[in-house]
C-alpha cells in the first residue's frame, strides 16, 4: 500500500500488509517512508510474475502481489508517487516492464473511476437528503394530526 498524508508537507509511506488464508482482513507487517526507498526491482521484465523486491536505506524486502497485473498497477502508482513527492533522491526502477514507466493510463483510469464514484455517491446523497426532508415534513404533519386527534378524543371523552 502506498499512502500519502494530507499534512503539510505531505508524507508518503509504503506499507506491507499480509492477508492470512481464510481471513478477509489484512495485517500490517512493515512500513517505510517513501524517502527511504532506493530501488524497485521487478526481477524479470520479460515475464509476468507477481514477485518483486524493494530496497530501502537499511532493508531489503521481497514482496509478492496478488497478481502480475496488481504488481504492474502498484509499480505505476509507486512511480507516480515518487515523481510527485520526492524532490531529491528518486528510487531506481530496474527490471521493470516498459509499460510500467510509460504512462499513467491506469492512474488516469483510476482517477476517472474515483471521480465518477464520488459524483454518483454525491448525487445519491443529495437524493437521499431530499427524501429525508420529505419524510421529516410528512412526519411533522402526522405528528400534528395525531395531536389534534388526541385533543379531540380527550374533549369527546370528557363531554
From TrEMBL:
Presence of keyword Coiled coil: yes
One of the GO BP terms on file: Golgi to plasma membrane transport
Domain V-SNARE coiled-coil homology: 103-159
Domain of life: Eukaryota
InterPro entries tied to this protein: Sec3-PIP2_bind, V_SNARE_CC
GO molecular-function terms, A-Z: phosphatidylinositol-4,5-bisphosphate binding
SUPFAM superfamilies tied to this protein: SNARE fusion complex
Pfam family, one: Synaptobrevin
Descriptive protein name: STXB6 protein
Gene source species: Tyrannus savana (Fork-tailed flycatcher)
